[in-house]
Amino acid sequence: MIPACPLAALPRGEAYRLDVEPPIALFHTEDGEIYAIDDTCTHQDASLADGWLEGCEVECPLHASRFDLRTGRVDAPPAKLPVRTHRVVVEDGTVYVVPSEEPPNLPPGIRAGTA
Amino acid sequence: MRSIAVVGASLAGLSAARALRGQGFEGRLTLIGTESHRPYDRPPLSKEFLAGRMSEADLALEADDEDLGAEWRLGATATGLDPSDRRVLLDDGTSVRADGIVVATGASARTLPGGGGLGGVHTLRSLDDARALRSDLVKGRRLVVIGAGFIGAEVASTARDLGLDVTVVETAPTPFAGALGAEMGAVVASLHGDHGVRLICGVGVRGLLGAGRGLAGTDRADGVQRSEGAGRVDGASGPEGVDRVEGARAPEGVDRVEGARAPEGADRVEGALLDDDRILPADVVLVGIGARPNVEWLAGAGFQLTNGVVCDAGGATGVPGVVAVGDCAAWFDPAMGYHHRVEHWTGALRRPAAAAVTLLSGGATAPDPPSSPYFWSDQYGMKIQFVGHARPGDTVTVEEGDVADRSFLAVYRRQDRPVAVLSLNQVRLFTRWRRRLDAVPNRTDSTLRSEL
After folding, report:
1. Which residues form the Rieske domain (chain A) (predicted)?
2. Which of B121, B183, B127, B194 is nearest to B157 (CA)?
3. Is pLDDT at B435 greater than 80 in this prediction?
4. Is the minimum CB–CB distance between A78 and chain B shorter than 8 Å?
5. B345-361 vs B11-22: helix axis angle to the nearest 10?
6. How far apart are CA B205 and CA B152, in angstroms?
7. Does the beta-carbon distance from A47 to B431 stay under 8 Å?
8. Domain boundaries, chain B
9. Helix, strand, coil abundance in chain A, percent, nearest 5
10. What pLDDT does residue B113 have?
11. What pTM was estimated for this model as a whole?
């Protein structure tokens, strides 16, 4: 379990990027839920924490694929693969992440380690 | 409607097929594509794919398990359309009849007359183009890019990264002026100089020089007919680039270069001859002077063809049961009040959904208002993003960051109303502006700013 940020640093409607390898994005939805997914779009190197949060979906800031924060699934091209989801724990005003043990779907370039 | 043929199997055609199935069309669906490849993503062809960071498999637009229940006719080129029974004629002598037709035949790269017979001269539009260019981008070679539009700039960036010596030539005084305005066009174009790429503006290319003809330019220049406007190329556009205004570009101009015709055979290009008699030595040349819509095959079939297939705001053409999408289509734009082609990737992704509604409803359902046109470009490791329409006379204000730092967001305003946004390496802030620009096109600027 990794400490990510103070809960106060993640207001509703906002995102927080956790600089682990690979990076993880945390989202606090307008409904008050907190979700964690891989930060890097599975299509190309873009930070989903920079994307547009709407309901339980985030839209990639570059090419507009949308990922479901609950399942990691992508709804529209150009991305084809889901992002991983990570379990979130909030304790004593701190947001923690339990990283997934699945292999990540990183985009080409990142995957090859050449970006 | 029991059968639909989609002519064109790239992003717009595939998106149309998906939209038709998504909207409940269960009839016979045929996709016709000139290229033998399954649908692939073109933007990386000048960037990650050209750089070797993406494979051909990575370019695939279809998911592994995707099945549209369609019949694919790949490697077949549409040569005509018979409107009497909506029959698409193919170059293999067969034809496909359908109750509805989606025209999605895209655009082709404009070429420089005289370059065709020379080795090392490229355009970049297709996967095959990209493969050929990639094999020519060898470290230490000299690359001349003709046209400083988005394709040219991206290839220059990629080639520089691969260790080539790169020069970009642009006829216009300022690159990107049409898309970004002169002020910001100059800012984005200055990225070339930042990274050791020479940029020569305000000079046309008269022709290309081939092996065995020498580079002194004297004998070549003697053979060149010099006429005003001939040989001028306009590079301020690219597939992800620019909205076209009808009549703004005259391809006729470049067709009149006579003396610069290249020798046939395996001769390689050795240089580019400029209008001011300068010669740029070159081992490789990339011609990035825009694209023309692939609509010749529709001639005589009742369509209005004016720089693309003229369509209404929902994609309907003048021929019943035929809609058009993507780079070949000039939709009516309610925000601008005229028809124009949009060569943006996002247009090819989103508009087919509206066109599918039009086709399936017989035009009875009005389309949603279009979202603001958006495009991006990656150059020299920078994320360049633009949304909206810029026009001459708009005021441009840097709202965040600093132009000198190559990290900023600039807002274009017309009568104090924000109409477009450009950003370099300001992805997060740009996303907010983009959504706001879409959501509240008629609000005042002060309202908009207070919400950001």
Report:
1. 2-97
2. B194
3. yes
4. yes
5. 40
6. 14
7. no
8. 3-106+294-361, 109-290, 381-451
9. 5, 35, 55
10. 75
11. 0.87
